[in-house]
Write a structure and sequence with these properties.
Blueprint: H1 6-19, H2 28-35, H3 39-51, E1 55-58, E2 64-67, H4 76-84, H5 107-124
Antiparallel strand pairs: 1-2
């Protein structure tokens, strides 16, 4: 089964919260309360998202976080990679990966087209495409 991690889900929720008003700055406390995400975990995730360039961190009294670009400019692949690292279907899926089984296992080359298609799809789905409202199943 392929599924997004909780960290990725929480990151998407936080980014969508910020995207409701793209000029808005929100604090960790505000986002955590609205999205019902544990604040300490959210703070770490927002730091990762800031390091990857998806959000801008503002210091001071009116500080908080803001999207660096419109939701239509942020792909699911970018969010996943910001939180989890390079997207891989299998543990050996990265080009630079070395596996102790590479001498006799051809799974990496066999799964490469699937990984490529999945990554392409995730690169073409943006946060703006995820427009469902709370409580709805998309």
């Amino acid at each position: 089964m392929f599924k997004l991690s909780k960290k990725t889900e929480y990151s998407i929720m936080a980014l969508r919260h910020l995207g409701r008003n793209e000029s808005m700055t929100a604090t960790v406390r505000e986002i955590a309360a609205d999205c019902r995400i544990p604040a300490p975990l959210l703070a770490k995730l927002l730091q990762q998202l800031a390091r990857s360039g998806l959000v801008h961190s503002l210091q001071g009294v009116n500080g908080g976080y803001r999207l660096k670009s419109a939701m239509a400019g942020i792909s699911l692949a970018e969010v996943i990679e910001a939180v989890e690292g390079p997207f891989r279907v299998t543990a050996c899926g990265g080009e630079a990966s070395r596996c102790s089984r590479s001498g006799f296992c051809d799974l990496r080359s066999a799964i490469a087209p699937v990984q490529g298609q999945m990554l392409s799809y995730l690169q073409n789905v943006t946060l703006a495409d995820l427009h469902g409202s709370r409580g709805e199943e998309d």
